[in-house]
Fold Oligo-1,6-glucosidase.
Amino acid sequence: MDCQSQKSPPWWETGVIYQIYPRSFQDSDGDGVGDLAGIESRLDYLVDLGVDAIWLSPIFPSPMADFGYDVADYCDIDPMFGDLAGFDRLLEAVHTRGLKLLLDFVPNHTSDQHPWFIESRASRENPKRDWYIWRDPAPGGGPPNNWISDFGGSSWEWDAMTGQYYLHAFLKEQPDLNWRHPELREAMMGVLRFWFDRGVDGFRMDVLWHIIKDAALRDNPINPDWTPNRTQRDRLIQLHSTDQPAAHEIAAEFRALADHYGDRVLIGEISLPNDRLARWYGTPDRPQVHVPVNFHLIEHAWNAESLRHMIADYEASLPAFGWPNWVVGSHDAKRIAARVGEAQARVAAMLLLTLRGTPTMYQGDEIGIGEVPIPRDRVRDPQDLRQPDIGIGRDRSRTPMPWDDSDYAGFSKVDPWLPLNEDWPIRNVTTQHQDCNSLLSLYRTLLSLRRRHAALSIGALVLVDSAEDVLAFERHHDDERLRIALNLGNHARPLPRFASLPTDAHPAEVLCSTLGEPHSAFRPWDGVLAPNEGLIMR
Ligand code: NOJ
Ligand code: MG
């Protein structure tokens, strides 16, 4: 055997990532907001759950206009979360448990309170002026082009003092950096080095496909498919404001730096169709990010037929060396249980953890937090506050983790910054931990199966034709072949005919049923899938 085939895959290919939204994971100091010491106190929960890496949404000093995605200092910790010494303690505690820690790098923009921007806006002659994107008004007056901010309104903010506009793809409190400026670029590479040197295992890179804009800042074309229930941003096609060739160059530089440190991972937040997404892997000679995030499971209609096509298309789009990845929830998306319902949230768990590719779980999805109504006077999400009528609020996915049935669900000693899920007295970690048929127990089972069966993590994937409502595929590695069948509907359905099965096959050994223990055992290969049931079979 040659050495190549003996080489074991990197940890981020076999591992499962768990996203923590630090404001809402665990409060330790009684201010109603989660913090680093709180996260440290819950690490054993994550070990027991069976994940491999933790990604923390931003923990850096920030005025919190966009809850940390407006960074005022890339190399420190916001006092609300702790301090650098506390971070080092957390990192050590993570590593002691054999876990990895990823930070959220926000390269597209800073806070308007970042010292760089304060200098940049001080005068047109300031040496940091061009670290951001400043332009004169359009010839007839008004903003330099037609670009629309992701949070609504023009992407340009007028600065009366220096008589120019600056660009912001998100809030006006989040001015866009100018990645064409060599000094800015070097300063940001220094930020990555700062954290790599401290020992972090990688980064999730916020809106990576945004970081470079068309040099001439041409108008974006009108989107003919826009309808009023969509965001203002979607009125335009972001042709000139995102996914520019030069952004790929920067991704390759990030990767070269990460590779220099060895065994680190870069996850690029990139929301694009498959053909464009695949380019973010780069080439074997000049790789870009390890993981260009695949949002399809979040964006796709939840039905077997369309998911099967989506999975096939995505797999087909990957370059030979490109490793896939999957996600069903995040701090920006509607909760999976709210979107597909409780019964299907269990099927979604099985799908996420049996597809080929690195799964990222989002805190709270493992206990099935569903829709959390946020009273209007408690809305905090700036996107929701600016575009209240289209139901895009992100607060409902950012509510605190309910740990137990004590006051404030064990999250805090005081009323938390966002309300808890209304059903927290019964839907909490402790209750589900005690119930072997809970969603949490299902997640633990699936994660432990994934750890024990290489077919589930690194195995090949073969999609299988199946009856209406059923999504089925095989995963195989070495001699092991596992078969997965998921019923996405609420009628019983025949199990698919797995053509690869030998004719004299023994009945299927059910390694896991989403319906819980009593359903696991043996089942004839021509048996049925119960409504909303998912099976892993051997
Ligand atoms: C994507 C982040 O996930 C989101 O929460 C944030 O508002 C934007 N990027 C801007 O940084
Ligand atoms: Mg706190």
User: Anything to note?
Assistant: The domain at 460-537 is CATH 2.60.40.1180 (Immunoglobulin-like). Residues 66, 69, 106, 170, 206-207, 269, 331-332 surround 1-deoxynojirimycin (ligand 1) (CB under 6 Å). The chain has three domains: 10-111+181-448, 115-167, 460-537. The chain is about 25% helix and 15% strand.
